[in-house]
Design brief:
Helix content: 25-40%
Low-confidence stretches: 240-259
Structural class: alpha/beta
Oligomer: single chain
Distance between the termini: 30 Å
Largest sheet: 9 strands, mixed
Length: 259
């Protein structure tokens, strides 16, 4: 299976610490490399990285990562990187045949989440989203989270930021089929901004947006200085980047479970 990493945005909320979010360091390891290694830990052999802002620097970093990680890395640029992230999904999906694991470059995801999504049977759905029903976690940015309301069967009823009614939070990891990029394009044609959530909602309306409940598995979004500090503190307390010399390491970046 292929993987797709979105790494095109400006990263304004983390910019006071790092000029480029995909290259922000967690215990000396760039977020982009962590994202690649997380996908590799789930069985991905080829990763497409979508770049935009600061593209040349990130593409050079991706080439360096490819030299030390057992995975093919392909980069592609989204021209209008200031537009919603659905444009990045469409740009990356053009280079992928079949289903793929989709992640954000700024999310730390323990291996069980990636492996769980990789093992999902996707024949009856257009997308499967990893969700966490622990919506009161201190690691969740309440002002920026994407919330999810589900039906009793686990399929998505509604998804988006600012939902008044929800029962789960979006973990930022997906098993996508070609239907996801097609749905985003349809929503753009209908006059919607073109976010990933726009496409997800269209598939939800069609009964094709499923979820994988990963409640209890470790994950977080490293989107601002507070979250960056939390990530490094938690890694100190329970998780570890398994080697400070990641270029020589061929092991997963994150441990699978909190000790």
């Amino acid at each position: 299976m292929d993987g797709l990493i979105l790494a095109a945005g400006f990263g304004s909320r983390l910019r006071s610490l790092f000029p480029s979010k995909p290259l922000a360091l967690i215990r000396g390891v760039p977020l982009l490399e962590i994202a690649v290694r997380q996908l590799v830990s789930g069985g991905v052999a080829r990763v497409v990285v979508v770049t935009g802002y600061n593209a040349e620097v990130i593409e050079e970093a991706a080439a360096n990562i490819a030299a030390r990680v057992p995975c093919e890395i392909v980069t592609t640029r989204v021209q209008d990187w200031e537009k919603p992230n659905g444009y990045s999904v469409m740009a990356g999906a053009r280079l992928i045949e079949g289903n793929y694991l989709l992640v954000m470059c700024d999310h730390l995801l323990s291996t069980p989440i990636i492996k769980g999504l990789a093992g999902v049977h996707a024949k009856d759905r257009g997308v499967t989203l990893a969700i966490d029903r622990g919506t009161s976690s201190s690691l969740i940015d309440l002002d920026d989270a994407t919330w999810v309301e589900t039906y009793d069967n686990g399929f998505i009823a509604r998804i988006g930021k600012g939902l008044a009614k929800y029962d789960a939070v979006d973990c930022g990891a997906f098993l996508a089929t070609p239907a996801l990029a097609q749905a985003i394009e349809e929503m753009i044609d209908q006059g919607k901004p073109g976010s990933l959530s726009d496409g997800m909602q269209l598939l939800a309306d069609r009964g094709q947006a499923a979820t994988l409940d990963v409640s209890g598995a470790w994950w977080m979004d490293v989107d601002d200085p507070k979250a960056h500090g939390q990530a490094e503190q938690l890694l100190d307390e329970g998780f570890s980047l398994l080697s400070s010399a990641i270029p020589q390491a061929a092991q997963p970046v994150l441990e699978d479970a909190l000790a």
